[in-house]
TrEMBL record:
InterPro entries per the UniProt record, alphabetical: BaiN-like, BaiN-like_dom_sf, FAD/NAD-bd_sf, RsdA/BaiN/AoA(So)-like_dom, RsdA/BaiN/AoA(So)_Rossmann
Record-linked Gene3D superfamilies: FAD/NAD(P)-binding domain (3.50.50.60), HI0933 insert domain-like (1.10.8.260), Translation factors (2.40.30.10)
RsdA/BaiN/AoA(So)-like insert domain sequence ranges: 189-338
Keyword Flavoprotein carried by entry: yes
Name recorded for this polypeptide: NAD(P)/FAD-dependent oxidoreductase
UniProt keyword annotations, A-Z: FAD, Flavoprotein
NCBIfam families: aminoacetone oxidase family FAD-binding enzyme (TIGR00275)
Keyword Flavoprotein found: yes
Entry superkingdom: Bacteria
Residue ranges annotated for the RsdA/BaiN/AoA(So)-like Rossmann fold-like domain, each copy included: 6-391
Amino acid sequence: MTENFDVIIIGGGAAGLMCAITAGQRGRRVLLIEHANRVGKKILMSGGGRCNFTNLGVTPGNYLSANPHFCKSALARYKPADFIAMVERHGIAYHEKELGQMFCDDSSKQIVSMLLDECAAANVRIETSCTITRVKSGDGGFRIETALGTFAAAALVVASGGLSIPSMGASGFGYELARQFGHHVLPTRAGLVPLTLSGKHHERLQDLSGVALTVESQCNGETFRAGLLITHRGVSGPAILQISSYWNPGDDLRLNLLPDGDALARLREQQAERPLAELKNVLADILPRRLALRFCEIWLTSKPMRQYRDNELQQIASQLENWPLVASGTEGYRTAEVTLGGVDTEELSSSSMQSRLVAGLYFIGEVVDVTGHLGGYNFQWAWASGHAAGSAI
């Protein structure tokens, strides 16, 4: 026996839940299918358990896509203020941490509970631990064969996410489904992910694991000022996660280790004030000491400041402000926060997220080739793309 709905949504993450709420509120009979044992697993783990649920500074420029214009329509019609209004209606306390990043005061569980309450109020049916065995189209709709039975609907929404964090249940199911229906899937790779070092580059830094500082990371014309953390395998921290989405193996990656001022002016000042102080001790006052000492062991020669000619100070300043970091790879999908690439936006409507190839088929969230920066941008894309599809179905 087949159960019939107006809309079937595959995937119970942020985008799928928002789509279900929006469609349900419009009177649609909605079934949401999630293969894991609960919905919203990535929501629960995000922001250190406090869910960085949006960002006040969202612009289309905060997203990577083969078509940078695609995200504009959805983002314009569902804004951070719209989601914050929902959070406030549910009495969830929140705060702005930094750079427009909005977090729950208490727990990300509150966001999931809010979304589930909204689904319940909109009469959305949710089935978890539900494995899909087959998806077919025909007779003006879609048939979904699952471990819990067969379901049918005129509209099918694919909100199954990307490949990042497979331990949370991530898989390539959405990409396979897209190809099944004739869609192109652009090459995928890990984004917002730590970088790894190898060989001498690894040897020089591995025992500095735990050293942290604020830097500017620079690659392929993009610059991010944020924290860097040296790890036992390479480098991490927001500055690295951000730039990783723009970096490919072999690309030139630079770090400004003194982003808060003019390095040369600082060195000249120290030379005048502390002529007898050695460079390693001067640098240890403005950089983490272990890193300063390592720099002087490998890349710089340490001697009393008065012994440096001005052109030598210029070279030292250039090293500190434009240090080449030779990464060998990334930590991969295991720790990546997002997946770059995905369903080609050229075959989707930017206003409704509906397929241009198959009527009634929609793709939303991370499965689409739209990837945000770190800091709540990917959640806002999930809310906005989910709302766009839910409003159109």
